[in-house]
Amino acid sequence: MSVHDRPPEEPAPPAAAAPPRSLAEQLRARDDASLAALLQARPDLITPVPTDLTQLATRAGTRASVVRALEHLDRFALQTAEALAVAPDPATYDTLLALLAGDESDPEVTGALPRALATLREQALVWGADDRLRLVRTARELLAPSPQHPSPTGLGPTVAEATAGMSPGRIQEILAAAGLPTTHDAVSAVASLTELFTDRPRMRALLDGAPADSLEVLSRLVWGPPYGQVTADPAPRLRWLLDRGLLLPTAPGTVVLPREVALHLRAGRAHQKTEPLPPAVEPAVTHRPQVVDATAAGQAYTALATVEELLKDWDEGGPAVLRAGGLSVRDLKRTAVALDVPEPIAAFWIELAYAAGLLASDDEADEQYAATPAYDAWLELPAAERWTRLATAWLTATRTPGLVGGRDAKDRTLSALGPGLDRSAAPEVRHRVLALLAALPEGGSAAADSLIARLHWERPVRNPESQTRTDDLRARLARWALSEAELLGITGRGALSTHGRALLATPPEAPLTGAELAAAASRAGRVLAPLLPAPLGHVLLQADLTAVAPGPLERPLADMLGVLADVESKGGATVYRFTPGSVRRALDAGRSASDLHAFLASHSSTPVPQPLTYLIDDVARRHGHLRIGAASAYVRCDDDALLNEILADKRSADLRLRRLAPTVLAAQSAPATLLEGLRAMGFAPAAESAEGDVLIARAHAHRTPPRTAPEPVPEGPPVPDATLLTAAIRAIRAGDLASTAPRKAAAAPAANGSLPRTTSAETLATVQAAVLTGEPLWIGYVNAEGSASQRLIAPIRVEGGFVTAYDHTADEVRTYPLHRITGVAELADDPA
């Protein structure tokens, strides 16, 4: 039946759309959702916003952008790109599938390839229809095999590439040895040899006649590297391969296995091991969720206590800041001893307090570290809210405590709080580790090796520049994330806690930022609050001069007890010990003996032991009996016998005391030195002011000026939000319309991308006519900074040397000075 005989209700088949000729044309055919996905996956393309789709395509093909995009592919998507790099250009879908699945047609590869190819297309690394797939040129240059940059596939050059410098006579000799008819030119000879190597039955027949030791040589080269060394007089097994082109010389003494031969020996596979599916993260041990939550909550309380103890230890000013920045090794050791933890753990708590904005340097002349004013506000928060501040700071921080003690690129030691600890991948790895734990059954903990294998698949550790494995930072970040999450109480016994799950999104694939993170933290705090022990208002006093706190204490009680007694041991219960020195410390702080008795009686759930009462009374009786002031220093006492005792004591010789009066001794030492010296001799002196009053030695809390927490160092440009994406796509579309809209013949000389040029009179006349007709114009415009651009405008009015028009490029009404318009051109009547 002819077309004229077709029934009227049957429409004619639509004309097939022309295949795209470039990446820009393919981007032009995308819808806004697809462009938004591209810009989210590759945010560097939007900084700054491209003027049109041609510029977007050009930027997507730059080396730096392509390298970054390749680094963010999963293993199978990267293997797909590597296979395309060794396939003919362009390649068909079936050719690509054969390279990945091999002759056996792996069903897992067949099922996973559409997803991988869709990822490469979405990220503008591959363009073209399934019958003409093209890898962008820069990606092909990075991934294609070369002697300087071997391919991860282990393949070498093609026959055509390897014989490029070979003499025509030598190529004809290879044809003859391989049993092929000779040709009249090198091009047809190479094509004939390539056809042989890609024909499976003929290749099997050729190799069936090969010596066994020659096949053994091929087996050593088949999976790469494909290069080998030969002498000037090759052995017979090598000569047989060289004569038939199964090995081709590339340089004096070097041969290579051609790509077509290797693919035949590999049964068509480009990779020795194709990994279409991610390895599963299996639970190593499964605990009851209640046990996990209780363990994590206990560790969360310990984390709060440790940070408080750290900053209390630095309350009067912490260690000095090194000239190069950071904490000295000696101060880190001292802090680790004070916290009773190993040095790497101490570095973690220090960096966590810094990331949360609770710790900073004071920027004074003798710069030292101290708590910030935010620390005092943090102390007043409920325990659950204090924990969420620490947890969210850890999740988003790019500073990496695990690097402390290592070396930087210049072989300098990396110190806590110092420069060089930022790793932009840290937040993403931490979140991904928690997300993988969240995917396990509740209470399930994962083996570290299983989890790291999954991370390796999701982001292969590969440098596209050199194609060699580099320092596996992500694996170290993942191991640190597991241990730090346990220290912080996000996990318990290796499993993600309920409040830890609340910190993640639902589903937890993408990290949360801004308001979403604050909401998640609030949710986690509400889950954790009932699990934390309630503060206690009492202690258990014992006859051995100790007090046991069976849980966390209310802040006023904890603060006072910290002055009156020394911490002897920590854990589930804290043990305090009363000593003469600790009691004297409380008296120095302005407390009287009656105050101390009343305090202990009101906060002890048991009667106050008599030995403790005697200790307080005895220290208080002697406290302040001696008075020390500044002469350079003096000692006065109403009991001259006591002064005689001091003078007679040989230990006072270093203080260089002499009697000024029966009740006064003078010293050449400073008051503080004299005070400590007499206390070391067993006396209980008190310092006094110039007016003769006893000085109350309250600790002076040193604070830095107001500080903000350190900003994370992002990994490249930030991912654009929905508002920016919408505005950027609108601007790109408008700019593309302006650059691709057909011009009338008069503007043809400027159609090569340069700005249109017309005289001032022609410009004014054309714009005035467009105001009357309502037709759009194409203009060239130079702004005040001298930047030139082309724009598509619809003039509204012309007056006072300015044209007011609706700018399709910016999608808004703007006013342009006529003298800055380089020229105008009318659009063709049929813009389509």
From TrEMBL:
<dbReference type="InterPro" id="IPR032830">
    <property type="entry name" value="XPB/Ssl2_N"/>
</dbReference>
<protein>
    <submittedName>
        <fullName>Helicase C-terminal domain-containing protein</fullName>
    </submittedName>
</protein>
<dbReference type="GO" id="GO:0004386">
    <property type="term" value="F:helicase activity"/>
</dbReference>
<keyword id="KW-0378">Hydrolase</keyword>
<dbReference type="Pfam" id="PF13625">
    <property type="entry name" value="Helicase_C_3"/>
</dbReference>
<dbReference type="Pfam" id="PF13280">
    <property type="entry name" value="WYL"/>
</dbReference>
<keyword id="KW-0547">Nucleotide-binding</keyword>
<dbReference type="InterPro" id="IPR026881">
    <property type="entry name" value="WYL_dom"/>
</dbReference>
<feature type="region of interest" description="Disordered">
    <location>
        <begin position="1"/>
        <end position="23"/>
    </location>
</feature>
<feature type="domain" description="Helicase XPB/Ssl2 N-terminal">
    <location>
        <begin position="539"/>
        <end position="661"/>
    </location>
</feature>
<keyword id="KW-0347">Helicase</keyword>
<keyword id="KW-0067">ATP-binding</keyword>
<feature type="domain" description="WYL">
    <location>
        <begin position="762"/>
        <end position="824"/>
    </location>
</feature>
